Amino acid sequence: MPKVITVTNQKGGTGKTTLTALLAYSLASRGYNVLLLDLDPQAHLSSFFIPTKDLQNVSDGIIEMAQWQERGKFKIRSIKLRTKGEISIIPSGLDYIIRMYRGLMPTFDPLSVQRRIETEPQINKKYDFILCDTAPELFPPTLWGLYASNYILIPTNNEELSFSGVRLFIKDVLPDVVYYKSRKNSDDIEPKVLGIVLVNVVKRITQNTINRLNESFKRYINQLPNTVSELFYERPLLNTVIYRYQELRDLTYTPRKRMIPLDRIISKSKEIQESLNMLSNEILERMRYLSKTDIVEVVRGSNK
To answer: How far is it, in rounded angstroms, from Cα 74 to Cα 60?
Structure first.
Protein backbone atom coordinates (compact mmCIF):
# COMPACT_ATOMS: atom_id res chain seq x y z
CA MET A 1 0.00 0.00 0.00
CA PRO A 2 1.22 3.53 -0.69
CA LYS A 3 2.12 5.66 2.30
CA VAL A 4 -0.27 8.57 2.81
CA ILE A 5 1.19 11.87 4.04
CA THR A 6 -1.38 14.54 4.90
CA VAL A 7 -0.20 18.16 5.05
CA THR A 8 -2.32 20.20 7.44
CA ASN A 9 -2.53 23.24 9.70
CA GLN A 10 -5.68 24.85 11.15
CA LYS A 11 -4.44 28.26 10.02
CA GLY A 12 -4.54 29.41 6.40
CA GLY A 13 -1.54 30.78 4.54
CA THR A 14 1.02 28.56 6.24
CA GLY A 15 2.45 27.02 3.06
CA LYS A 16 0.51 23.74 2.96
CA THR A 17 0.03 23.74 -0.80
CA THR A 18 3.57 24.85 -1.61
CA LEU A 19 5.05 22.26 0.74
CA THR A 20 2.88 19.49 -0.76
CA ALA A 21 3.99 20.35 -4.30
CA LEU A 22 7.67 20.64 -3.37
CA LEU A 23 7.69 17.37 -1.43
CA ALA A 24 5.99 15.59 -4.33
CA TYR A 25 8.64 16.88 -6.72
CA SER A 26 11.45 15.91 -4.37
CA LEU A 27 10.17 12.35 -3.85
CA ALA A 28 9.51 11.88 -7.57
CA SER A 29 13.05 13.08 -8.31
CA ARG A 30 14.26 10.09 -6.29
CA GLY A 31 12.24 7.71 -8.45
CA TYR A 32 9.09 7.35 -6.37
CA ASN A 33 5.65 7.50 -7.96
CA VAL A 34 3.58 10.13 -6.20
CA LEU A 35 -0.18 10.77 -6.30
CA LEU A 36 -1.46 14.17 -5.17
CA LEU A 37 -4.93 14.49 -3.65
CA ASP A 38 -6.24 18.06 -3.64
CA LEU A 39 -8.59 18.12 -0.64
CA ASP A 40 -8.98 21.90 -0.56
CA PRO A 41 -12.17 23.16 -2.29
CA GLN A 42 -10.21 26.26 -3.35
CA ALA A 43 -8.30 23.97 -5.75
CA HIS A 44 -5.02 25.81 -5.18
CA LEU A 45 -2.82 22.73 -5.61
CA SER A 46 -4.73 21.69 -8.73
CA SER A 47 -4.09 25.15 -10.21
CA PHE A 48 -0.33 24.48 -10.13
CA PHE A 49 -0.74 21.78 -12.79
CA ILE A 50 -4.11 22.27 -14.52
CA PRO A 51 -5.45 25.34 -16.38
CA THR A 52 -8.04 27.26 -14.38
CA LYS A 53 -10.66 26.84 -17.11
CA ASP A 54 -10.47 23.06 -16.59
CA LEU A 55 -11.13 23.48 -12.86
CA GLN A 56 -14.37 25.45 -13.20
CA ASN A 57 -16.50 22.30 -13.17
CA VAL A 58 -14.93 19.02 -12.13
CA SER A 59 -17.10 15.91 -12.22
CA ASP A 60 -14.37 13.28 -11.83
CA GLY A 61 -12.19 14.64 -9.02
CA ILE A 62 -11.68 14.16 -5.32
CA ILE A 63 -15.38 14.27 -4.37
CA GLU A 64 -16.15 11.47 -6.79
CA MET A 65 -13.20 9.51 -5.44
CA ALA A 66 -14.66 9.86 -1.94
CA GLN A 67 -17.93 8.32 -3.08
CA TRP A 68 -16.44 4.86 -2.73
CA GLN A 69 -19.66 3.09 -1.79
CA GLU A 70 -21.32 4.36 -4.99
CA ARG A 71 -18.13 3.68 -6.99
CA GLY A 72 -17.97 7.29 -8.07
CA LYS A 73 -15.96 7.80 -11.25
CA PHE A 74 -12.75 9.76 -10.82
CA LYS A 75 -9.83 10.45 -13.13
CA ILE A 76 -6.15 10.47 -12.26
CA ARG A 77 -4.41 13.25 -14.21
CA SER A 78 -0.81 12.62 -15.15
CA ILE A 79 1.54 15.58 -14.68
CA LYS A 80 4.46 15.85 -17.07
CA LEU A 81 7.46 16.88 -15.04
CA ARG A 82 11.16 16.16 -15.46
CA THR A 83 11.40 13.68 -12.61
CA LYS A 84 12.45 10.02 -12.49
CA GLY A 85 9.20 8.96 -10.86
CA GLU A 86 5.71 9.92 -11.96
CA ILE A 87 3.53 12.60 -10.38
CA SER A 88 -0.23 12.46 -10.83
CA ILE A 89 -3.15 14.32 -9.28
CA ILE A 90 -6.81 13.83 -8.45
CA PRO A 91 -7.95 17.45 -8.46
CA SER A 92 -10.41 19.53 -6.58
CA GLY A 93 -12.80 21.74 -8.54
CA LEU A 94 -13.64 25.40 -8.10
CA ASP A 95 -17.30 24.37 -8.17
CA TYR A 96 -16.80 22.17 -5.10
CA ILE A 97 -17.27 25.13 -2.77
CA ILE A 98 -20.74 25.60 -4.29
CA ARG A 99 -21.53 21.96 -3.63
CA MET A 100 -20.54 22.50 -0.02
CA TYR A 101 -22.71 25.61 0.18
CA ARG A 102 -25.68 23.62 -1.15
CA GLY A 103 -25.08 20.68 1.15
CA LEU A 104 -24.07 18.32 -1.66
CA MET A 105 -20.71 17.27 -0.20
CA PRO A 106 -20.66 13.58 0.82
CA THR A 107 -20.05 13.54 4.58
CA PHE A 108 -21.30 10.09 5.50
CA ASP A 109 -17.92 8.38 5.92
CA PRO A 110 -14.73 10.13 7.10
CA LEU A 111 -12.83 7.00 6.02
CA SER A 112 -14.12 7.17 2.45
CA VAL A 113 -10.83 8.22 0.83
CA GLN A 114 -8.94 5.58 2.78
CA ARG A 115 -11.40 2.92 1.60
CA ARG A 116 -10.95 4.04 -2.01
CA ILE A 117 -7.18 3.87 -1.73
CA GLU A 118 -7.42 0.36 -0.33
CA THR A 119 -9.79 -0.92 -3.03
CA GLU A 120 -8.48 0.75 -6.22
CA PRO A 121 -5.61 -1.12 -7.92
CA GLN A 122 -4.92 1.89 -10.16
CA ILE A 123 -3.88 3.65 -6.94
CA ASN A 124 -2.51 1.05 -4.55
CA LYS A 125 -0.57 -0.92 -7.19
CA LYS A 126 1.18 2.03 -8.79
CA TYR A 127 1.98 4.75 -6.26
CA ASP A 128 4.58 4.75 -3.49
CA PHE A 129 3.33 7.90 -1.82
CA ILE A 130 0.03 9.77 -1.67
CA LEU A 131 0.28 13.41 -0.59
CA CYS A 132 -2.89 15.12 0.63
CA ASP A 133 -3.20 18.90 0.60
CA THR A 134 -5.93 20.12 2.95
CA ALA A 135 -7.93 23.25 3.68
CA PRO A 136 -7.37 25.01 7.03
CA GLU A 137 -11.05 24.48 7.83
CA LEU A 138 -12.23 21.09 9.04
CA PHE A 139 -14.31 20.54 5.91
CA PRO A 140 -15.19 16.90 5.09
CA PRO A 141 -12.29 16.72 2.56
CA THR A 142 -9.81 17.75 5.26
CA LEU A 143 -11.13 14.96 7.47
CA TRP A 144 -10.84 12.47 4.59
CA GLY A 145 -7.12 13.27 4.37
CA LEU A 146 -6.53 13.09 8.11
CA TYR A 147 -8.30 9.76 8.53
CA ALA A 148 -6.50 8.28 5.51
CA SER A 149 -3.06 9.37 6.70
CA ASN A 150 -0.16 7.19 7.76
CA TYR A 151 1.88 10.31 8.43
CA ILE A 152 1.09 13.96 9.10
CA LEU A 153 3.24 16.96 8.20
CA ILE A 154 2.48 20.39 9.69
CA PRO A 155 3.78 23.51 7.90
CA THR A 156 4.05 26.89 9.61
CA ASN A 157 5.56 30.25 8.87
CA ASN A 158 7.29 32.36 11.50
CA GLU A 159 4.13 34.03 12.80
CA GLU A 160 2.26 33.56 16.06
CA LEU A 161 -1.07 32.85 14.34
CA SER A 162 0.55 30.00 12.41
CA PHE A 163 2.03 28.64 15.64
CA SER A 164 -1.43 28.79 17.19
CA GLY A 165 -2.78 26.77 14.27
CA VAL A 166 -0.13 24.11 14.93
CA ARG A 167 -1.02 23.93 18.65
CA LEU A 168 -4.73 23.85 17.89
CA PHE A 169 -4.29 20.88 15.58
CA ILE A 170 -2.04 18.98 17.97
CA LYS A 171 -4.21 19.52 21.05
CA ASP A 172 -7.76 19.37 19.69
CA VAL A 173 -7.82 17.67 16.29
CA LEU A 174 -5.12 14.99 16.34
CA PRO A 175 -6.51 13.18 19.44
CA ASP A 176 -9.93 12.94 17.76
CA VAL A 177 -8.39 11.43 14.61
CA VAL A 178 -6.49 8.83 16.64
CA TYR A 179 -9.55 7.94 18.72
CA TYR A 180 -11.89 7.68 15.75
CA LYS A 181 -9.55 5.49 13.71
CA SER A 182 -8.93 3.14 16.65
CA ARG A 183 -12.65 2.88 17.37
CA LYS A 184 -13.77 2.35 13.77
CA ASN A 185 -11.03 0.00 12.64
CA SER A 186 -9.04 -1.92 15.21
CA ASP A 187 -6.56 -3.06 12.54
CA ASP A 188 -5.72 0.50 11.52
CA ILE A 189 -2.58 2.21 12.77
CA GLU A 190 -2.72 5.71 14.21
CA PRO A 191 -0.94 8.32 12.09
CA LYS A 192 2.58 9.39 13.04
CA VAL A 193 3.55 13.05 12.99
CA LEU A 194 6.64 13.53 10.85
CA GLY A 195 7.09 17.02 12.22
CA ILE A 196 6.56 20.74 11.81
CA VAL A 197 8.14 22.50 8.82
CA LEU A 198 9.10 26.17 8.61
CA VAL A 199 7.89 27.39 5.21
CA ASN A 200 8.20 30.79 3.53
CA VAL A 201 10.49 32.29 6.16
CA VAL A 202 13.13 34.94 5.53
CA LYS A 203 16.74 33.78 5.25
CA ARG A 204 17.87 36.03 8.06
CA ILE A 205 16.16 33.79 10.62
CA THR A 206 18.89 32.50 12.93
CA GLN A 207 19.59 28.96 14.05
CA ASN A 208 19.11 30.11 17.65
CA THR A 209 15.60 31.25 16.79
CA ILE A 210 14.85 27.91 15.12
CA ASN A 211 16.20 25.98 18.13
CA ARG A 212 14.12 28.04 20.56
CA LEU A 213 11.04 27.43 18.45
CA ASN A 214 11.74 23.70 18.44
CA GLU A 215 12.09 23.65 22.23
CA SER A 216 8.84 25.57 22.59
CA PHE A 217 6.94 23.02 20.49
CA LYS A 218 8.67 20.18 22.33
CA ARG A 219 7.55 21.49 25.73
CA TYR A 220 4.02 21.91 24.44
CA ILE A 221 3.87 18.37 23.04
CA ASN A 222 5.40 16.78 26.16
CA GLN A 223 2.67 18.17 28.38
CA LEU A 224 -0.01 16.42 26.32
CA PRO A 225 -1.23 12.87 27.01
CA ASN A 226 1.12 10.06 25.95
CA THR A 227 -1.38 8.92 23.33
CA VAL A 228 -0.57 12.17 21.49
CA SER A 229 3.06 12.89 22.39
CA GLU A 230 4.24 9.40 21.42
CA LEU A 231 3.10 10.00 17.83
CA PHE A 232 5.82 12.61 17.25
CA TYR A 233 9.38 12.36 16.03
CA GLU A 234 11.81 13.26 18.84
CA ARG A 235 12.62 16.66 17.31
CA PRO A 236 9.26 18.28 16.43
CA LEU A 237 10.71 20.90 14.07
CA LEU A 238 12.37 19.69 10.88
CA ASN A 239 15.95 20.80 10.34
CA THR A 240 15.04 21.59 6.73
CA VAL A 241 13.69 25.12 6.23
CA ILE A 242 11.86 26.23 3.09
CA TYR A 243 12.90 29.85 2.76
CA ARG A 244 11.00 32.63 1.08
CA TYR A 245 11.77 32.49 -2.62
CA GLN A 246 10.19 35.04 -4.92
CA GLU A 247 9.98 32.40 -7.65
CA LEU A 248 7.71 30.16 -5.58
CA ARG A 249 5.00 32.80 -5.69
CA ASP A 250 4.51 32.06 -9.39
CA LEU A 251 3.56 28.39 -9.20
CA THR A 252 0.06 28.69 -10.68
CA TYR A 253 -0.26 27.11 -14.12
CA THR A 254 0.06 29.58 -17.01
CA PRO A 255 -0.81 28.22 -20.49
CA ARG A 256 1.58 30.66 -22.15
CA LYS A 257 4.58 28.85 -20.67
CA ARG A 258 6.11 25.82 -22.34
CA MET A 259 6.38 23.84 -19.12
CA ILE A 260 4.65 23.68 -15.76
CA PRO A 261 6.01 26.51 -13.56
CA LEU A 262 7.09 24.13 -10.78
CA ASP A 263 9.40 22.32 -13.19
CA ARG A 264 10.83 25.53 -14.60
CA ILE A 265 11.42 27.19 -11.23
CA ILE A 266 13.14 24.23 -9.59
CA SER A 267 15.32 23.45 -12.61
CA LYS A 268 16.70 27.01 -12.56
CA SER A 269 17.54 27.20 -8.85
CA LYS A 270 20.30 25.09 -7.34
CA GLU A 271 19.41 26.49 -3.93
CA ILE A 272 15.81 25.25 -4.14
CA GLN A 273 17.02 21.89 -5.47
CA GLU A 274 19.32 21.50 -2.47
CA SER A 275 16.51 22.41 -0.08
CA LEU A 276 14.22 19.82 -1.65
CA ASN A 277 16.88 17.14 -1.47
CA MET A 278 17.33 17.90 2.23
CA LEU A 279 13.55 17.84 2.72
CA SER A 280 12.99 14.38 1.22
CA ASN A 281 16.11 13.04 2.97
CA GLU A 282 14.77 14.16 6.32
CA ILE A 283 11.22 12.98 5.65
CA LEU A 284 12.40 9.50 4.67
CA GLU A 285 14.72 9.31 7.68
CA ARG A 286 11.87 10.28 10.02
CA MET A 287 9.64 7.66 8.42
CA ARG A 288 12.38 5.11 8.93
CA TYR A 289 12.66 6.06 12.59
CA LEU A 290 8.91 6.13 13.30
CA SER A 291 8.05 2.94 11.44
CA LYS A 292 11.02 0.84 10.30
CA THR A 293 8.92 -1.82 8.58
CA ASP A 294 7.01 0.77 6.58
CA ILE A 295 10.03 2.53 5.18
CA VAL A 296 11.77 -0.71 4.22
CA GLU A 297 8.71 -1.74 2.21
CA VAL A 298 8.53 1.66 0.51
CA VAL A 299 12.19 1.69 -0.46
CA ARG A 300 12.10 -1.90 -1.70
CA GLY A 301 8.99 -1.23 -3.76
CA SER A 302 10.46 1.88 -5.35
CA ASN A 303 13.87 0.71 -6.48
CA LYS A 304 13.73 1.98 -10.05
So the answer is: 4
Backbone angles phi, psi at 155, to 5 degrees: -85, 150
Instruction: Give the residue from 137, 242, 134 showing the smallest Cα distance to 191.
Output: 134
pLDDT in tens, 145-202: 999 999 999 999 999 999 999 999 999 999 999 888 777 654 567 899 999 999 999 9
3-class DSSP state of 7: strand
Q: Which residues contact 64 (CB under 8 A, 6 or more apart)?
A: 72, 73, 74
User: Which CA distances in Å does 210 have to 10, 204, 217, 236, 273?
Assistant: 21, 11, 11, 11, 22
∠ CA(123), CA(112), CA(20), 5° rounding?
A: 60
Tell me if residue 131 falls in helix, strand or coil.
strand
- Position 179, amino acid: Y
Please tell me the distance from the alpha carbon of residue 62 to that of residue 37, in angstroms, as a whole number: 7
pTM score of the predicted model: 0.93
Domains of the chain: 3-293 (3.40.50.300)
